[in-house]
Amino acid sequence: MLDNGGMSAPADAARAPTVGFVSLGCPKALTDSELILTRLSAEGYRTAKSFAGADLVIVNTCGFIDDAVKESLDTIGEALTENGRVIVTGCLGAKAGEGGGNLVRQVHPKVLAVTGPHATQEVMQAVYEHLPKPHDPFVDLVPKVGIKLTPKHYAYLKISEGCNHRCTFCIIPSMRGGLVSRPVGDVLAEARALFESGVRELLVVSQDTSAYGVDVRYRTGFFDGRPVRTRMFELCEQLARLAEPSGAWVRLHYVYPYPHVDELLPLMSCGAVLPYLDVPFQHSHPDVLRRMRRPASGERNLERIQAWRRACPQLVLRSTFIAGFPGETDEEFEHLLQFLREAEIDRAGCFAYSPVAGAAANDLPGALPVEVREQRRARVMAVAEELATRRLARRVGATMQVLVDRSSALGRKGASGRSYADAPEIDGTVRLLPPAKASTQIRVGEFVRARIVAAQGHDLIAQPV
Ligand code: SF4
């Protein structure tokens, strides 16, 4: 349940309608929530701390895997019980139930409205209908920087919606539609506003960041009166330029190993963009990748990674994998383990394959027993742990820049943050020991330099210098 302290109260707060908001799912869903909350705030609505205390509740759902579907349906049920007036948005809202009807409406027929993902306008229409907009010309101003659900010092920047791929295990394109790249000028204007508002780390997200601009044929847009192509490299170059005055970080997520990604390595070696790539490989064996219908499945991923590492030795690679995909042979699975070791993936996550309702992979032959899928997942994770531990241990003795996420008594009782090698929420942390000098203060959202003194699990321990 979100209570957004940043939402400005309208002139007559006592009469302002209140909206409860729950945001579930991935960073892309989070940016949808931020857009809706920004509109609500700009139009004079306030957020409520509880379902019961709201005039209406909006639930932004996730529909990717079965657990997420259950969590979303349960949350809607809770909101209906405690409040009764519920609008549903997000991926689950676009999902069909039995017989082709809308799944959310089938399970919860009392919801007021249901929309799919990235549907701010439709959500606002439903809000106007069920909780009319307050009339106050002074609050009808859209804030320069939207509502952020992340801490003030980092923010997700969504550069596109939807996806043109058709991976056989995924139903996102059927929920979010084909790729629609945001105009490059809008993306850069948002980035600049975020940096100006104190953001020190910008996390670029989309379904396929490397495909940015494909849908508009890399059309040339404008920013600050200058032409900029709608293309990943040019976007990163401009983001780096905007981040430079404050020394902020630019981190890329969901990049596929296409040849044009090689162009980014010089930007990473010189630190303009963080030398960190989140590449969801999902598998290594060409036949499995073909059955998965993965983007860039024909690429020589291992050779590409090795070339990236030669060009930028400090590069950190994060990835996710699926073990036990239908038809995965012992040999294909061993190929995956070998790939992990040879590619030296710094941070790997692995799911045991689980069928998602509506996904094409459900019809593939050779489904593996659940126990085999789980065993394989455990084996991947064991290799991943071993690699992560080994690669982290190499950092002991180095001095790294750390972005502070939490600080206790201005750092006197220690603090915690992340280095360039750690994305928020998904990677490890750097635990900062109290500074040697009592006069040194460590504040959230600041960069500090620290000497790594030990590695512990997925985290590092460091002494500020
Ligand atoms: S790239 Fe594949 S897994 Fe990712 S959103 Fe597109 S279809 Fe789904």
End-to-end separation in angstroms reads 39 Å
* Biggest sheet, spatial arrangement of strands: 2-1-3-4-5
Question: Based on DSSP secondary structure assignment, what is the total number of beta strands?
Answer: 20
What's the tally of helices?
12
Bound molecules: iron/sulfur cluster
Shape: globular
Strand content: 15-25%
Low-confidence stretches: 3-13, 137-144
Question: Averaged pLDDT, please?
Answer: 89
- What proportion of the residues is helical, as a percent range? 25-40%
Kindly name the structural category. Answer: alpha/beta
- Specify Rg, calculated over alpha carbons: 23 Å
What characterizes the major β-sheet? 5 strands, parallel
Notable characteristics:
465 residues, alpha/beta, five-stranded parallel sheet, 20 strands, disordered N terminus, binds iron/sulfur cluster
Give a summary of the structure in a few sentences.
The protein has 465 residues and is α/β, with parallel strands linked by helices. The protein contains twelve helices and 20 strands.
Can you characterise this structure?
- The protein is α/β, with parallel strands linked by helices and 465 residues long.
- It has twelve helices and 20 strands.
- The protein has a five-stranded parallel sheet, with helices on both faces. A five-stranded mixed β-barrel has the order 16-17-18-20-19. A three-stranded parallel sheet has the order 6-9-12.
- A hairpin with a 2-residue loop joins β10 (220-223) and β11 (226-229).
- It binds iron/sulfur cluster (SF4).
